[in-house]
Amino acid sequence: MPWKYGSVTLKEGSSWTDDNGIRHPTNWGIWTDTYKKDVIGLTWVDPPKTFNDEYYFGWNADESALLPKPLADIKTNKISLARQIVKNDLSESDWYVTRKYERDVAIPSEVSAYRTAVLTNYTSLQSAINSASDIDELKALYTSTNGASQDAKSIDATSSSVVSTSDDTITINGHGFVNDEAVYYSVGLNSDDNPAAVIGGLVDGYIYFVHSATTNTFKLSESHSNCGDASAVNISALSSDGTKQTFTSLGKYGKGQTSPNKNATKYDGS
Predict the structure, then answer these.
(1) Exposure class string for 98-136: b at 16+ Cβ within 10 A, else e
(2) pLDDT tens for each residue of 133-183
(3) Which domain holds residue 38?
(4) What gap in Å lies between CA 44 and CA 47, rounded to an integer?
(5) Tell me, what DSSP letter sits at residue 258?
(6) What are the tens digits of pLDDT across the range 1-43?
(7) Is the domain of 208 the same as that of 115?
(8) I need a labelling partner for 65 at 20 to 30 A (CA). Which of 26, 80, 193, 225 fits?
């Protein structure tokens, strides 16, 4: 913290010498505030208030208000950053496009699907950035919000009345989840205290997005709707021993926080 001796800001963990030539030890920070002030003659200086320099130049003179940057400039920077992310996300599969152009070799459907999702997600974000009417709306695009349900929802994944392989739904009465809410899936432990078997089609420790939610049921998607391909995961089997599996809300992501997961099964060809 910023203690000063005269005009010199002291660094905790470092020794220093006062005007009388006395060298003070590296552990001077353990002294009481009273000793520092009254005996040693140190002065406490409040640190400057922090601010997000993406949106603001800083504080005004009395630190009562932030000085915003021009909204148009912020939008330009945000879109430029989003384009760079798109470029990075597409770079690994650009060679498929080059091969198609030079040798007319078809691009695998899962690669095309991923590239389309990346571009769709970018287009959605770009539109939202351009539509923002003020800095608060722009910041909201990069902020997660709490989902409708904050508690982990536990299910008996061995029950066909809970997990449906016919329509890919999970039934939890009054679950509270809403579409596009991110949920973390955990298999939990079986009766032998070992990791339980997964629900067929799902992956333990994976983040899914709520899809086709009703009051008591929901489906799961590997993609946020911003990506344009938020189809439901095909649930192929019940868990054989997972009577305490959970879905835990991670909230709703802002549009600036979503992107297609290149490891999703829909994109890796499995």
Answers:
(1) eeeeeeeeeeeebbbbbbebbbbbbebbbebbeebeebe
(2) 999 999 999 999 887 767 789 999 999 999 999 999 999 999 999 999 999
(3) 3-44
(4) 9
(5) -
(6) 589 999 999 998 999 999 999 999 999 999 999 999 999 999 9
(7) no
(8) 80
Q: 66 lies in a domain?
A: no
Closest listed residue to residue 20, CA positions, set 35, 5, 4, 33:
5
Strand order in the sheet with 43-44: 8-9, 3-5, 43-44
Do residues 124 and 105 share a domain?
Answer: yes
Say yes or no to pLDDT of 224 above 60. Answer: yes
CB-neighbour burial class of residue 183 (10 A; exposed 0-12, middle 13-18, buried 19+): buried
* Residues 224 and 160 reside in one and the same domain: yes
Residues 136 and 149 in one domain: no
Q: Report yes or no on whether pTM surpasses 0.70.
A: yes
- In residues, how long is the chain? 270
Within a domain: 265: no
What CATH number does residue 193 fall under?
2.40.30
Please name every residue paired with 246 in a beta bridge, in sequence order, or none if there are none: 154, 186
**Site of tokens 């079986």:** 190
First vs last C-alpha separation in the chain: 54
